[in-house]
Amino acid sequence: MKKISEKMRVSFDLDEVLFVSPKTHKTEPDLIFPLNKIFKERLRYGTPDLINSLQKMDYEVWVYTSSFRSERYIRCLFRCYGVKFDGIVNGTRHQKEVQKGHKDTLPQKLPSHYRISLHIDDESIVCTMGRQFGYNVYQLEAQDDDWKEKIIARAEEIRKREF
Ligand SMILES: [Mg+2]
């Protein structure tokens, strides 16, 4: 059993998970000018609601992306939507803290390194590596009107089992 004070961590990939194309997915409304010129990414519909709900339920919510967008850029963009992450791992941080000193290439993401219990990603390779490297993944890709309920259910199931 882990200490009660330790909150369970859930992380989200950005590209194709929280950032999606309005051509294939329902999205949150565009930001107002001039913010929409600075932040061109479009958020999957329901993103602020899901993240805020998870945090209200006492989860920590992180971003884990292989992209090299800066932490500051990510924080500013999401702040415009009323979202504040508990932690952010981008490609730079991953290379410095996870990959450094390893001769062989580790997986592109290693949520267990950051004590993340559930990671949401679109890429099959990230999902299949989970078993080997000890992390739980939820694969999310296409438009899904029930993604909020499904992810919360998965997180609750893990929290009941592991915390
Ligand atoms: Mg992705």
What does this structure look like?
- This protein is an alpha/beta fold and 163 residues long.
- The chain has 6 helices and 5 strands; from the N terminus they run E-H-H-E-H-E-H-E-H-E-H.
- The chain has helices at residues 35-38, 47-56, 71-79, 91-99, 124-133, 147-162; strands at 9-12, 60-64, 87-89, 116-121, 136-139.
- Strands 3-2-1-4-5 form a 5-stranded parallel sheet, with helices on both faces.
- Helix 3 links the parallel strand 2 and strand 3.
- The structure holds magnesium ion.
- Residues 13, 15-17, 121-123 line the site of magnesium ion (MG).
Helix and strand composition category: alpha/beta
- How would a crystallographer describe the biggest sheet? 5 strands, parallel
CATH architecture tag: 3-Layer(aba) Sandwich
Question: Which blocks of ≥5 consecutive residues have pLDDT under 50?
Answer: none
| Range of strand content | 5-15%
Terminal CA distance reads 6 Å
DSSP helix fraction: 25-40%
Overall pLDDT, averaged? 94
Number of domains: 1
CATH superfamily: HAD superfamily/HAD-like
